[in-house]
Write a structure and sequence with these properties.
Blueprint: E1 5-6, H1 7-15, H2 17-25, H3 35-52, E2 59-60, H4 66-76, E3 83-90, E4 93-103, E5 107-113, H5 121-136, E6 140-149, H6 161-164, E7 165-169, H7 171-177, H8 181-192, H9 215-218, H10 234-242, H11 259-270, E8 274-275, H12 277-285, E9 291-299, E10 315-324, E11 330-336, H13 344-354, E12 361-363, H14 366-379, H15 384-390, E13 394-396, H16 398-402, E14 406-407, H17 417-425, H18 437-449, H19 454-485
Parallel strand pairs: 1-4, 2-3, 5-6, 9-12, 12-13
Antiparallel strand pairs: 3-4, 4-5, 6-7, 8-14, 9-10, 10-11
Helix pairs in contact: 1-2, 1-5, 5-7, 12-19, 14-15, 17-19, 18-19
Bound molecules: iron/sulfur cluster (SF4).
Iron/sulfur cluster (SF4) binds near residues 15, 16, 19 and 206.
Length: about 475
């Protein structure tokens, strides 16, 4: 029996025919979405459900029974009301429309809902496949729209569905990108109906438009120290690989590399750590006691939670602060918001209480913390002067690593603290219940806004304290170790 090319499979096939084949013939190979991917999908579902409120007279067609949903979709066309998730199958193709809106006597507009704030190329491919499928099924399509989130919307009371969404007419772009669609469909139908998997080499496509979930498998043959670990390698890494250079240490000496790539190249060749002692000394010399090691955690929900907030606006819910005095004594202070109310006012007030008037504020990637403080000052202007006064105290610990003043091959070209901490100190985030910022955000939402038992909530809050605490304590360890190595 011929396989069905659905809209989602078509989009998978555009990225890679191997991934498409596996998603049909070897499904068990495709890993379940991780917490972060699942969270994004859930946010998309919430947005999709909200979008249906845009049209009060619409009818939702449940997917449950596949053939029944197709039958219902067809039958409901005559009602001439907006249809949500209407599904049509024709010539081996199947597509469900987020929204089909009737226009005039017998035409329809396609409205595709996305939780992003801009029209992306992949959205145009998505809608071009839908349009083709509906037209082949006999529908007259007038226009195509993308219904995105408007990030200028400010919540004031109940979410206003007419204002949080913006409609963009993408009819012409869809027509442009739709050129060659029938040939692409033909190729992909052949792929899914073949008994053998197409051989696809690794390429840029593995990361665009999304990180392919099979990357860990397809890329697993690459040994440590491979050219894709080259810092900001991009096209250069692929060029080297295509020329048969797999390892960084194999890159010919006359190949043009940037300064930091040359350091990485030398480290790989010599199996050694690089440290520019003068630069590190200079960096450490800038630190003024007491040292305030600071880290924030945030959430940025697509649908604003509190009045005065925009979609995707960041809400800080946690900080960790380690204060180190010149005599070596250390104090740890932290804030972790509790309950469903807006934590920002308390967050900024508590932070002001503990940050003192002098001494370096050491953060890892300062644009994040400083940007957030600026946003808070915009919302609570009484803190503006204080936020401005903090600027000269900030010291960004990522800089020596981003500039490769210190580099250990175990960092694999990365300056992220998750790679730098083990490289410099031998300690790591391994085995922690919460071990990255995205998981911290998701768990916080679960514990304070979700349906969570008291014991689970306790576990999450303890883990959040440990995780954020390690981010700041880890920075102390890094600086102590760098000092030792001078
Ligand atoms: S990792 Fe790359 S080659 Fe492998 S299936 Fe995904 S896109 Fe295709």
């Amino acid at each position: 029996m011929s396989k069905l090319l659905t809209k989602s499979k078509y989009l998978v096939g555009l990225q890679c025919s191997g991934y498409l084949w596996d998603s049909i013939h070897d499904k068990s190979k495709i890993p379940q979405p991780d917490k972060s991917a699942q969270y994004k999908m859930d946010q998309g579902t919430i947005v999709g459900q909200l979008a249906t409120k845009y049209f009060t007279d619409g009818i939702y067609i449940p997917e449950g029974n596949f053939m029944e949903s197709i039958r219902m979709s067809k039958a409901l066309l005559s009602k001439r009301v907006p249809l949500f998730e209407a599904g049509f199958m024709v010539n081996g193709l199947y597509s469900r429309a987020d929204i089909l809106k009737p226009v005039g006597k017998d035409q329809w507009d396609i409205i595709e809902v996305k939780s992003g704030t801009k029209v992306k190329e992949i959205n145009l491919h998505d809608v071009s496949f839908q349009k083709f499928c509906y037209e082949q099924s006999g529908l007259k399509i007038r226009k195509c729209f993308l219904m995105n989130i408007d990030n200028t919307y400010v919540k004031n009371g109940k979410i206003d569905v007419k204002k949080i969404f913006k409609l963009t007419d993408i009819t012409d772009d869809v027509a442009d990108i739709g050129k060659g669609l029938t040939q692409r469909i033909e190729v992909l139908l052949k792929v899914i109906n073949s008994t053998t998997r197409p051989k696809v080499p690794i390429s840029h496509d593995c990361k665009t438009p999304y990180d392919c979930p099979l990357k860990h498998e397809c890329w697993s043959f690459l040994p440590d120290g491979n050219v894709f670990e080259l810092s900001r390698g991009g096209k250069k890494s692929f060029d080297l690989y295509e020329q048969g250079v797999v390892l960084i240490k194999e890159i010919p000496d006359d190949f043009k590399l940037s300064t930091i790539q040359s350091i990485q190249h030398k480290c790989e060749k010599d199996c050694k750590t690089h440290m520019c002692k003068d630069s590190i000394k200079k960096f450490i010399g800038k630190l003024n006691y007491p040292l305030y090691y600071l880290d924030f955690e945030t959430i940025n929900p697509v649908i604003p939670l509190f009045d005065g907030m925009k979609p995707y606006q960041r809400i800080p819910f946690q900080f960790s602060l380690h204060i180190v005095q010149e005599d070596g004594s250390t104090e740890h202070l932290s804030f972790l918001a509790e309950g469903k109310s807006d934590p920002r006012k308390k967050f900024v007030a508590e932070l002001k209480n503990v940050l003192g008037n002098s001494g370096s504020i050491i953060v890892y990637n300062q644009s994040f913390e400083q940007g957030l403080l600026r946003e808070l000052a915009e919302t609570f202007p009484k803190y503006l002067e204080w936020v401005i006064s903090l600027t000269p105290r900030f010291v960004d610990l990522i800089i020596p690593f981003r500039k490769f003043h210190y580099y250990n091959p175990v960092q694999k070209g990365s300056a992220s603290i998750k790679k730098v901490l083990p490289a410099v100190t031998g300690k790591s985030y391994d085995g922690m219940y919460i071990a990255d910022g995205m998981t911290a955000s998701i768990r916080y939402i679960e514990s304070e806004f979700g349906d969570c038992s008291e014991s689970k909530r306790k576990k999450i809050r303890n883990s959040l304290e440990k995780y954020c605490g390690l981010d700041t304590e880890g920075m102390i360890w890094i600086i102590d170790e760098l000092k030792k190595q001078l």
